[in-house]
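Consortium newsletter contribution from the modelling node. Members have asked for a concrete example of what our holo predictions look like. Here is one, prepared for the pyridoxal-5'-phosphate complex that several groups have been discussing at recent meetings.
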Amino acid sequence: MSSKSGRHFLQIPGPTNVPDRVLQALSRPTIDHRGPEFARLAREGIEGLQQIFKTSGAVVIYPSSGTGAWEAALVNTLSPGDKMLMFETGHFATLWRNMAVKLGLQVDFVPTNWRHGVEPDVVEAKLREDRSHAIKAVAIVHNETSTGVTSRVPEVRRRMDRAGHPALLMADTISSLGSIDYRHDDWGVDVTVGCSQKGLMLPPGLGLNAISEKALAASKSARMPRSYWDWEPMIKDNTAGFFPYTPATNLLYGLREALHMLFEEGLENVFARHTRHAEATRRAVQAWGLEVVCLNPEEYSSSLTGVMMPEGHDADAFRKVILDRFDMSLGTGLGKLKGKIFRIGHLGDFNELMLTGTLSGVEMGLAIAGVPFKTGGVAAALEYLSSQ
Ligand SMILES: Cc1ncc(COP(=O)(O)O)c(C=O)c1O
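And here is the predicted structure:
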């Protein structure tokens, strides 16, 4: 392979670009995970994550990918054969449903066309129908990374309350945490699932659960077999800054630095930056004459934009042109959107010039790949960004 000059553009919607400050923190010498210095590091990481999830409740950190944190949410709160309500908003919602089924749960999986989020009306109707309260949990993906659609979690909570149903609410914030406003406590979420490699600007390797008092109480009687994922020994050892098994020490150094960076910028400013970049991206897509996957403006994602490929053009062939020519990775279409869409990740450690560089690569790629489009997308983004 010939060497490429300049930096690779990693514009997939996670893993995201890891800032130099975090890379340097990761490279510190590994320390004794049973010593006092580690205990301070762990406590700082957990307390910082509580601020990110906006919760005063327990947060646990697994040495795992996000999939592990999904499993932890299910096995700690549910019993074999329990009923759940889930929504097919895209590929990741489907994978979480598949996991629940493999674990022996019964899932009512509400279909969508993968261009909309969770429909709060349907949540309410389904829960009202369930008079015996057989449904034990509603589990939704906040930001569907495969499509760029953000579901309205507070509205889902409101409808659950209006139906007077006691099911737990679980939300996957894997591609929204630290990028899009999210409030575990205020929104009444029982288990929030997160991970390290997206808005938190870290490499993959940390899986996260934020846990409400109600979820903790449910875990006392839940009968799903669990060992590695068991919250109880985690929370007990975490109180003193320790873990029941070897933690991902160096990732915790990275976490501390990433949290410092987010707090220095201010979470509200971080969210506003993501919103601005997403709007600039959509303006570019619109000017190109292409279509954004998300059909409801209330559900536009601020962390990524899914773009429909014109009929007869393969999104992956287009992505290959961009990778070969400009050394930029765009997100592939997943599941039933394979070949039909590409995804532009604009989350994490990202700024205006990185965004305009990314959009320039897309616009040049469209021309080189012979995809029908109108020029002017980058100009539309520049005009918007410079007017802000
Ligand atoms: C929304 C969402 N949920 C879950 C996952 C699975 O996480 P992981 O690949 O870290 O196991 C991903 C991965 O991209 C995701 O985007």
